[in-house]
Amino acid sequence: MNHLLKECALDDTCSYLEDKRQTMHYKIIDDCSKAYCSELIERGWRRFGNMFFRPVCRECSACESLKIDVDHYHFSKSARRVIRKNSDLRTVLQRPTMTQAHLDIFTLYHDYMKCHREWETQPINPQNYYMSFIHGYNDYGYEVLYFDKETLIGVDLIDILPNGISSIYFYYHPDYSKRSLGRYSLYRQIMMAQENNLAWIYLGYYVQGCQSLEYKNQYDPLFQLEGRPEEEHDPIWSFLK
Questions:
Q1: Contacts of 189 (CB under 8 A, 6+ apart)
Q2: What pTM did the predictor assign?
């Protein structure tokens, strides 16, 4: 377990803010254990497939790692309305899979976001979908499938770790955009964590000024990771709000 295949830092155009450069630290780990994955996520890393990454930009600290305090989270009236609105949906929790429906919805979702938020998109194919969302799930990676009757309409990729749930990626069919499925999927994660006595929902990065990530600051109680701690240092999470 935890076979480190490659580690590097790469400079590129920033994924979140225009006219910025970013430096990302990457680890490619084969057979990463649940315990080690949890240690990395707790220190601000994210996982796609068997690749873990985090920003280490010298002149910018805009990427802030956030997590929701599940034990003290209370659903607002607005949250309860979203939950009621989607109470007719059927959900399935299982290991990550790939079907043509997955690929079709993924493509439709990104075409929709390109139109509405000017996302840069690249065509998806089975190989890169597999490498991003299926490969490397080990004994902690799952998908939550959302069905309207028998029709797949949303896919939520998550890691269920000893101390919490790490949100990886969520996408949905644009025809169901009025259902607030992004918010609903996160509420479902919180409920799942509460039912299983898990303390945190790891939201990944919040970046002020990046419309696609600013929603993460709407939840509370919320904690923020201080800096980018190395593995030999204990992570410090400060109460944000």
A1: 144, 156, 158, 165, 167, 201
A2: 0.95
